[in-house]
Amino acid sequence: MLKEDAGKGKGGFIGLLPLIIFLVLYVTVGIGSGSFDNIPLAIGISIACIVAFILPKKGDKETTFGDKVTIFCKGGGENTLILMVIIYLLAGAFYGVANSMHAVDSMVNFGLSILPGRMILPGLFLIACLVSFSMGTSMGTVSALIPIGIALSSKIGVNVALVCGLIVGGAMFGDNLSFISDTTIAATRMLEVEMKDKFKANILMVLPAVIINVLVLAFVKIDAPAAGTVYAYNFVNIIPYILIILLSLMGMNVMQVMLVGILGGVVIGLFHGDFTLLESLKVVHTGMTWMEDMALIAVLVGGLVALMKYLGGIDWLLHALTRKTKTRRGGELAIASLVSLLDIATTNNTISIISAGPIARDISDEMGIDRRRAASILDLFSSAFNGLSPYAGQLLVAGAMAKISPVTIIPYVWYCLMMIVFGLIFIGIGWPNKFTEKSLIGNK
């Protein structure tokens, strides 16, 4: 038998009610009214928070409402969430500066000039994969490339939601595989395996999704640039994006990368007379205000998750998914289901990996699952569902910048959808376990 939920209790289903109520409310109003914009995410999550405050915890008569407020505030102020809020603000500032000093226009025209028509969308996806793998963060990638994608979509006559979806997909590629990604670090540390071994197993599981996504994008109908058409661009204006890519490849922290990009954009804008020094401050501030709603949502979600943990919802979910696990394939499916549902509940793939990690390790040891494969499953499914959650940071940023509902982007995040499909296929056939057993043999 497995260890009893890594030392945790069974929890209670009541702890999941706030999330369930939010999802039902959001979907019902969105479908019923014909638009998901009719129920702002911040309002829907606020309603879920109110429900979490009202719900009592069975057997707990000592925790006061003030104690619940403290729990909520600690959850909303969690380190990774505050970091995410700062990245949101920096991303908005960079977007505002890049747009004002015409970096976006130059970057789009430069891409149209060098890429064959059929390779524009696949090229953008592969660039997103490269940038995210280099930066180790999907948020930084989305923030840097979505402005380019938005401008590009209007020039080639492609649905902006599709372009946002392919960028989010490419961003989750790096989130899943990068050696400096917090999800990779969390998965390998929780399962006590080497990063390079986890990478070998993981890349084999997602490579078919990458190849198919590139091929499908190559056949999307676009208004391809006419042969011989000259697209004007100023190479100097592209420098902020070049800085972001090069500094990411060097492994610089995402906050440092965004700050350098903003500063570079301001200097070039001043040099070209796009704005004065005082106007540049307003440009930076305006860009930040575009992300205020998203930053608030991140804090509310963090507080909501903390209250759900207090109410026992997360523990109940852990227990329900692991109590009947008996076979290796069943164990792998349990790990995938566990981390997926935790990611849906927390909208944070790193937190979901850390929460599921101890149980995944126990399941691996009991069912004979190679820990490196288990780490790959944890990272793959958490990253895939994070890229498909309309209230997670990636789609929130994309939707805010494109001024569309995050829900409308989900059908076009093809790479994340294919990650799930191929992840399940490889669990079903037991591959690449057998293929890699010589180099990835045994558990620690």
Automatic annotation (TrEMBL):
Query: What residues does the Na+/H+ antiporter NhaC-like C-terminal domain cover?
Result: 80-216, 233-431
DNA-binding in keyword set: no
The UniProt GO MF terms for this protein read: antiporter activity
The topology of this chain with respect to the membrane is: Multi-pass membrane protein
Q: What domain of life?
A: Bacteria
Q: Name one Pfam family in it.
A: Na_H_antiporter
InterPro entries per the UniProt record, alphabetical: Na/H_Antiport_NhaC-like_C, NhaC_Na-H+_Antiporter
- PANTHER family named in the record: MALATE-2H(+)/NA(+)-LACTATE ANTIPORTER, NA+_H+ ANTIPORTER
Q: What is this protein called?
A: Na+/H+ antiporter NhaC
